[in-house]
Amino acid sequence: MFSTWLRIFAITSIGSLTSDSLDWEPIEGPPLVFAYDLVSEELREGERFKLAPIAYVVNFGYEFDLDSDFGDFHVRGIKMLELIVHEIDALEKLEEITKTKAFATSFSEALKNPIVRSWAVARRPVTTVTRIPSGIVRYLQGKFFEVKRGSEKLAAKTKEHRYRGESNEKEPVGEKVTGAAKKVGNTTKKLSRRHLGFDKAKRDWSRRLKVDPYTTNGYLQFELERIAWASTVGSFAGEFAIPSSSVLSYTLQAQEMVWSKSEKELERLNSKSLKTMGVDTSVLVQFDELDQYTLTEKTELVITLEEIEVDGRLDLIQLMLEVETREEAMLMVKIISAIGNYHQLVKPIEEVAIRRGLAVCYDEEETMVLPLALDYLHWSKEISEVLLSNDLYDESRSLWISGTASAIAKRRLATHDWKLKENCFDTFTALQPNP
Prior knowledge:
Layout: H1 4-13, H2 15-22, E1 32-34, H3 35-38, H4 41-44, E2 45-46, E3 49-51, E4 54-58, E5 61-68, E6 71-76, H5 78-98, H6 101-110, H7 114-122, E7 128-129, H8 136-140, H9 152-159, H10 187-196, H11 198-209, H12 218-232, H13 250-260, H14 263-276, H15 281-289, H16 295-307, H17 313-320, H18 326-346, E8 349-355, E9 358-363, E10 368-372, E11 376-377, H19 381-387, E12 397-401, E13 404-405, H20 407-415, E14 418-421, H21 424-431
Parallel strand pairs: 6-7, 10-12, 11-13, 12-14
Antiparallel strand pairs: 1-4, 2-3, 3-5, 4-5, 5-6, 8-9, 9-10
């Protein structure tokens, strides 16, 4: 790594140049795009769904409108679109199964149980996913790293790992958590469900269908729970092969764990791993109750963080605790996953740091790598202010994005000595060893 004095000198020497150059930067608005140009035919239309022909770039992310027999979805990002289409396919399979006489008999039997009857009255499928506000702009503004939720103990642990050359200004005092998100259902109901084998049956069916048992798709949750009750209390045994998969990526590792382990087991293992990393007990409780992440995402984060055993890792944990919305949580999963994949598959990293509120890492060749989960990078005021700021200056710096960049953005990045890597997750997938 460069010495502290060398970094300070380099940043100071180009300060006025960077500041002045911002006044001359072009401003590029988001384009209008067509779904035909972005996704394959399989994602545009099926027997039970249809994608609107026009997509939009909103806060650097693609947004799609998808109509289906199982509800209307406003989808952000191609990966999420792929997930929704896969879940619609799973719902089709479940629909076929639940139309059989064997299922109808089993579910009728299950409804005699007061717990199942209570569930049937209370649960209704959610058929529409509403627009999710973007979290990328708040992240670019550095607002995640303000220690709003992070405990004082975690902030104290991470302070010594701040990147070299950062100001020593006093950190804001963390606010106490006064109203943690409550888990669905009370303890008695959970114990009853576990005793009846409901949770295991739900995980087994999720694995058969290759879906997430903790999905935020309300309609799929409803159908998974319905068949789980029929399989346990009603003794329904559907003929369905359990697929095998090679565990390679962090996502697949997490998926295998949520299929095979109970909710309590996962929470215990996640807490144990975080505690080993040096996270304070009070923060473990906070992480467990943070409902912006699904349990699957929390597990993937922990698996990834275990691999990033370098200085600054606790800063990443503090950063991921600051999310306020679902989309911000999904954003942090992608960013931390990108750092972990870079470390494992591209070049070993030696340090993780927070610069201008953004997570960066330094590899063994002293290159600063900034991962950003963006579908389409166009040269806007928000982007130029961030990427051309003194805080993100480095003699060797690389920007890894999950999507693509416009021609103007590519030229401006090259002019300002940023090396650009597009479609980084495709790169990581290609670098995965053969099973």
